[in-house]
Amino acid sequence: MVLPNPWMILPFVLLLGAIASGPVLAPKWWLRHYAKVALGLGAVTLVYYIFILRSAAGLAHTGHEYVSFIALVGSLYVVSGGIHIGVKGQATPFANVIFLFIGAVIANILGTTGAAMLLIRPWIRMNKYRVTAHHIVFFIFIVANVGGCLTPIGDPPLFLGYLKGVPFWWVAEHCWPMWAVGIGLLLVIFYVVDKRNFNRASPAVREKETAKETWQFDGLPNLFFLAIILGAVFVKVVFVREALMIAAAIGSYFTTKKTVHAANHFDFHPIVEVAILFAGIFATMMPALDWLNHSAPRLLGEHPAPGVFYWGTGVLSSALDNAPTYLGFLSALFGVSGTEDIHELLGQQHLQILAISVGAVFFGAATYIGNGPNFMVKAIADQQKVATPSFFGFIGRFTMPFLLPVLVFVWLLFFHA
After folding, report:
1. pTM confidence score
2. In terms of Cα–Cα distance, which of 341, 342, 349 is closest to 302?
């Protein structure tokens, strides 16, 4: 394998910097030109791989991963956008905790993308009288990330592990203690934060939010298309899986009543933004991942502790997107173990694989780019005029004070050696 020049990591760094600072420093300019920035920097990397490295195989592999990612995220976005959950609003802190817990469970059935897209709109509506940044961020923490730690369907990195041969129920069997601790701590923290927010609200707002609510569901025929997408997850024929997902999305869009799309304020802007930004991310991160795959076995040593994989996978997942980072560290673990058999690896390095899995899923919540649904939740919240933190505001105001202590506690309890 011919390694790229280290300078070729620069387009990836520049893109991350633009995603972080553009919406804050020049929001109007960024809205008009983000596609040019993302695709332009991605094109620089592609040209380098095609004409300098002549690495067609690497490009094809990355291209397939991107198509699979967008097909899954996009189809779930369209189908969930055709299901309307009507709620007048009972946003007491306790009711919110129950809602988030249900979302965390559903994330393992519909995936974090499907659960987030299905529930973010009713979540905003039920909190409409006092919805603020912490509602959006904790929704990202719990429903769009940590909640999906129990099945390969739950989160993209676990699905990639399943495709690599990790048994389907291995995840649930071994990850449930980390899931229970992570979700439990985040729900407790959210309750404290939300209780303070509720107590500061005016008496009129508190009275509205404790009023009896009425739940209504419309667009339930889309559950059929959702079942097709979930079934397609188990299809391993190249591009057939993606074709089934896209067909389900098309069928859903054209059979859903216009009144349902109107009630959900549905349009394609959030998924288009995600598709463009992640096209740039997938392209520009190729040099960084190539260096990770090459250098990780040497840097990790002969007998790396589980905590090395937990923090290594986790920190890079928050910056590189958690799915390819998971594959990078799984590849490194194969290298240091001297085996190419996944079942043998599960026997030899059980705790290390567990650390990679939990690190990828949990740390995907740390930034907007850590996991695909994060950006989509933000885009929908912005579309509905909800105040969301900036890229650095997300990290400084929420990840560091609230998520990081949970990540440290999980490490101390399960992976500290």
Report:
1. 0.83
2. 349
Higher pLDDT, 414 or 213: 414
- Number of domains composing the chain: 1
Question: Dihedral through CA 406, CA 409, CA 413, CA 417, nearest 10?
Answer: 120
In a domain, 246, yes or no: yes
Residue 1 falls within a domain, yes or no? no
- Of 212, 229, 286, nearest to 53 (Cα)? 286
Half-sphere exposure of residue 153: CA atoms within 13 angstroms, side-chain side: 21
Tokens of 227: 């079942």
Q: Residue 107 carries which side chain, given as an amino acid letter?
A: A
Please list the residues that pair with 86 across neighbouring strands.
216
Residue 217, SS3 per DSSP: strand
The one-letter amino acid code at 409 reads F
Alpha-helix runs per DSSP H in 127-169: 133-142, 156-163
The 8-class DSSP code of residue 3 comes to P
Residue 124: what pLDDT? 92
**Residue 147 DSSP class:** G
175 residue type, one letter: C
The pLDDT of residue 110 is: 84
Give the residue numbers spanning the domain of 195. Answer: 6-415
